[in-house]
Amino acid sequence: MTRKFLNAGNTVVSNYLLSHFHQLGLTSDELVIYLIIEKQREQGDLFPSSKLISRETGLDESKVYELLHELIQNKFMEIKTVKHADGKNYDQYNFDLLFDKLLQSADNETETKKQQTQKNDRETVFKQIESEFGRPLSPIEYETINQWLTDDHYAPEMISLALKEAVLSQAYSLRYMDRILLNWEKRNLTTVNQVQKEEERQRNSSSSDHNSNQRNVKADLNGPKIPIYKISDQNK
Fold it and tell me: Which of 119, 146, 170, 214 has the fewest Cβ atoms within 10 angstroms?
């Protein structure tokens, strides 16, 4: 019994298909039909008979015919004629259309999640600015922020950082934030990490210049002493 179980092999099925087949419009019976055809394909039978499918699924053969027709009609499957190595033409079931729908569904899901994330980020930016400014934003200010995100493609975290810089300078205006964002853009600083590294570089440069000036002043103070002559000595 164990050997029979192992010899039966395994059929690899996309988890995404199992999770989304209803969303695609595929019924449970149609999914079972697909699974049986896929199992037979992996065993070398590219065009299993409706009788075999009926036996494997427990469905009436007439129902199998109906389901196969629906799969074709709904563009989940098609029957292709392929020439094999022996030179003969053979029919086979092809589910490329189903997987095209799966890929499109995955792309749509990704795009939906992206749009939702952008919407959440946008609302977060609005709330942060209103909180720091201590007042509701005007329609013009909303439009300005929308332009930053949509037209200028400033990352939400960069806008938040510009807000932080403005608050530290006690400049509660979008115009001040806009100048900060433009300055970073001109210097090709597009991420928070880049801005932080640039600020650190400037601090180190400033500290280095300060230390250099201190050394120069010290060198001047410790330089060679200039002899002081008395006028009376020069007349001797």
Answer: 170
